[in-house]
Amino acid sequence: METRFETVVIGGGVVGSGIAYHLSERYKGGVLVLDKKYPMTGTSGSTQAWVWVHNKTPSWYAEFNMYSAELYPYLSKKIGDVEYKRTGGLSPFFSEEDREKALKLAEAYREIGIKIKVLSREEVLEKEPSMNPEVVGATYSSIDGNVNPFRLVDMYMRAAKKNGVNYSTYNKVTGIEKQDGKFTVVSDKETYECKNLILAGGTWSRELGEMLGINIPVNQLRGQILVSEPLKPFLNHTISGLRQANNGEVLMGYSMEEKGFDRSTTLDVIQETANMALHYVPSLKKAKIVRAFSGIRAMPEDGFPIIGKVPGVENLYVAATHSGVTLSPLIGTLITELIMDGETSIPIDRYSISRFGVGVKG
Amino acid sequence: MHIKDHPVLGKQLQEPVTIYFKDQPYQAYQQQTVAAALIANDIKKFGVSRKNIQDRGLFCSRGRCCSCYMTVNGEDHVRTCMTRVEEGMEIYPNLEDPEVRRDGNGD
Amino acid sequence: METDVLIIGAGPAGLAAALETASRGLAVILIDESSSLGGQLPQQTQLIRPLPSEYGPLRGFELAEKLINQLEDYPINYLLQHRVVGLYADGSVGVTDEENVFPVKAKKMIMATGAAERAVAFPKWTMPGIMTIGAAQTLINRDFVLPGNEAVIIGSSDFAMDVALQLMAVGVNVKGIVEEQPEVQASDNVKIEQVQQSGVPIYLNASIIEARGNGEVAEIDIEHTGTVLTEKVDLVCVDGGRSPILDLFYQLGCSFGYQEKLGGWIPQYNSNFQTDREDAFLAGNAAGITSQGAILLTGMVAGISVCEKLQAISHDEAQQIRGSLFKELEILEDKDIWESRIHHIERYANPKLKDQFIS
Amino acid sequence: MNRLDKSTIICRCEEISYEEIEEVIGNGARTFDDIKRLTRCGMGPCQAKICTSLVAKVIHEETGKPLHEIPLPRMRMPLSPIKLETLATDSTSFSTVKSVLDEVELEDGKVR
Prior knowledge:
The complex is a heterotetramer. Chain A is 30% helix and 27% strand. Chain A is built from eight helices and 18 strands. In chain A, the strands form four sheets. In chain A, strands 1, 2, 8, 9, 10, 11, 17 and 18 form an eight-stranded mixed β-sheet that branches. Chain A has a four-stranded mixed β-sheet with strand order 5-6-4-13. In chain A, strands 14-15-12-16 form a four-stranded antiparallel β-sheet, with helices on one face. Chain D has helices spanning 18-26, 32-39, 52-63, 84-87; strands at residues 9-11, 16-17, 82-83, 106-107, 110-111. The mean pLDDT of chain D is 91. Chains in contact: A-B, A-C, A-D, B-C, B-D, C-D. The interface between A and D is large, with 60 and 44 residues.
């Protein structure tokens, strides 16, 4: 296999493969994607895969997510059916105090053009008949939806490969150096040289950054998710806490635990998640749970994406974020713009790694 | 066909039980599983698969493969190889995904 | 629920371990998802030998009765029709009675979760009427139901020979045994003889081309020495061999080694039959596929080791008993299986698969 | 294993054939879980209890890897399917499981 490429992407998950695909649509230089295993062994293969905007705060971050959500229909046209469904997003609440919070949220978002409705109890039950009748209300946004993460990454890879992108999997990167304007990437199987280097290491971004003396402060936040057997379609929306996939299974879960890279599950969280799911949709009680899996969120220290150039290191780009599924079309587009046009169509300086006061260490 | 007199274990089938498959009565015995009782009555097709609608029946009889899924007394996806017969049991083949809506407003 | 010892699986290994622990005053909970004790033993109508000295040759169901009766005067808490669902963060085991899931906190656990039959794939193997040899045995010897009238068996292990003989005993016409390998896999020549004398052809270097039928199997094509043999059948029993059931060991974070002759992936364990998780012991087919006699001995070793760890017997007494149990195991167990087991125990410190949940 | 007829079903729950698995191995999938994510093989109610050994044979035949170098799939709770109501307890307190609104903090009446 060739060892010199104009651009190397480290990490073939939803963010890395998303970048490789979007780049391959415009970029004529050679692109190589390196993954230490096969794509989707990380967060991209263990996610509820919401494409979610509303109640992401503050509003500029919600706006950022909205731009990405709006790209999804076009993405599906270009790379094929990824089972993207803009179902509308419901975030139910069961106490009147939350209504005040919901109204404030809706108001804050109206200012930046994101329509969030605060539904009454009747409106919620009309939209989602299976919802617990004790529901008091919900915030609702029509832009929210979900996607099949396995198809999304698979279709990104197929489209990228069709455009000439190379993938080298089960090939872990062990060292990176930069001399006279070029990067040398040492991996298990090979040593590569490239001009542009894109770090898309997901939950392992910190370790990847350290190879170049760069601080990419991404922590691990575990989520446990229950999967039911496939059921006849009955849930119409993506509900914050659960959704029904095209194949009919219901995915349930919204938990957060700091457990590093430990991807085991515990009956404690599984039973709590079951309580939450039944509290939202009581008619799920007879449905059988066939699996409980857990995924590790790649959570940047301040919770916001780290996207863009790395100051002080020419032609080095980083893309490390939570909500990688929602944001992958936008991040793919932005990184491609940085490489092709040297600037992005929307401002991303808020998301620059420089906010962590990073310079090249040592 | 029930083995009334087993060559080694002798006459083991003592208390008869009536079960209903697709609303028809069939003869079973106390300690038999639903799957076994149906097979004794020459009913081997317990349901169909989801994607290609292929016939499914007993395979592992250890409660692992779920090929013996049937609807028993109103509950879907029961592992009939692990469920003992009871008098008056109502059994239907597993032909489609479970429907949750009807449980919601029922009991 | 709290206990000294939680034994998971009430087959011969679990029952043997229960005797060793309960008879020495330890509080024991014995759990099994079936509604009766004995695991697969009650449906083994064939004579089982060799067995450890104090048992003498018995049929499977007789051995089950003996193992169950021996426990009568000990206060064991039996949780039948209960199954393990998973684990809590504090390590207690999540058990369900199909109504609720509740924690059971045990000082030590003995996993006697047994083995599962592997499938054999050929076109249309998913049709009704095609089942494992274990399933056919369960139907005839536990449920007293004829699974069919004309059968073909795919695979030729000792277990397959037993099931062939038992099917014929209840009137099933076994029309042939199909073996992919060039030689019969069973090691019990007496049984192979019996099967052949009953007129059952054993096709070697043979395989199934396809099964056919409407709603259930009716015909099967066998490829043998270049020719295709079509048999009318209403029952096909597959013998894909057996492997230890690993699901619970995996959740416990146990590491694994691989031994072809013991059924493939096996939890790592030392000569105390202790996994690399301090409070988890194992016994029976979960520690490697073997004969009933050996299964009993492994249950005894695990039980003795737990008694030692919970100070119910001294270290010296435990070493002495284990020594004699291992000697008897070496005599009684199939040589290949014994050697694989020793090899597996020797590699306790370097497993092939570990930290399966750390990404 | 009947290698001649690639339409042979390997995963009986999700009805995934030998050739569907062969195709994704050709695209670089190496482990059971790689294959599962690309084909759904092993995602059915039996959760790979039946197809694990069959898929291992396919990986062995397609990649030449010996069986002792083909790792186990990731096994998960529940060890076998269980009703949601059986799993649930009657507690309504949530510690690790949050609602999305929990994360919305108000600072002097404004969304932070």
